[in-house]
Specification:
Elements lengths: L3 H19 L6 H27 L5
């Protein structure tokens, strides 16, 4: 199975989380909470993809 799209998504989700943490003072207050919730959702989905990939590692 080709996991290249999943790897790209995981890298981008964690990069977005890192950018949000590093630049939290520069982001306007109006959009900060929405972006934070979206980032948390993307990171949780990335973790789910990692766990799902590990559980189905030997099935293909």
């Amino acid at each position: 199975m080709d996991y290249s799209n999943a790897v790209i998504f995981i890298i981008l989700a964690f990069s977005l989380g890192l950018i949000m943490i590093m630049n939290k003072d520069r982001i306007p207050q109006k959009i900060r909470s929405g972006m934070a919730l979206t980032t948390v959702a993307l990171i949780l989905f990335a973790f789910w993809i990692i766990v799902y990939s590990l559980l189905n590692l030997g099935s293909s």
